[in-house]
Amino acid sequence: MIQGLYEAHLPVSNIDKSIEFYSKLGLELAWKDEDSAFFWIEKEKSWIGLWQGEEYKTSYHPSLRHFAFRVSYEDIKQSINWLNSINVEPVTFGSRDSIEPFVRPYSGNASVYFNDPDGNSLELMCFINVPERLKNISNKLSIEEWEDLLKERE
Description:
Elements: E1 7-12, H1 15-24, E2 28-32, E3 36-42, E4 46-52, E5 66-70, H2 73-85, E6 90-91, E7 102-104, E8 109-115, E9 121-127, E10 141-142, H3 143-151
Parallel strand pairs: 1-4, 5-9
Antiparallel strand pairs: 2-3, 3-4, 6-8, 7-8, 7-10, 8-9
């Protein structure tokens, strides 16, 4: 039945400034009116809607004002360089001190975080294959720590 995500929405303070930011991420503008804009994530499959209004002042919480873009593992490894190349600053996540990408073996994914101009939390995220012997690791690992563990034999 469900095949993927069709759309997600975020509040923004300035639609033109947000269009500039999301275009810089390489997303294609699907359409715009005076107070909203939609960008294709996967053309004709999924998009994000940006809505100008006072709602951007809503305090951040993971259940609000956040979504993740699906990327490849190789993209995650290059994400800091890519974000820096488009003048977007990566941010720390939770109790982590590092902005570097990290792996969650217990949930089978890797991530790096950044914010849009209104403080909406954005994430680059990928699925990873986790060997059975590593599925019980409950802490977040740097890419280097993860790849070292993958090289180890049981």
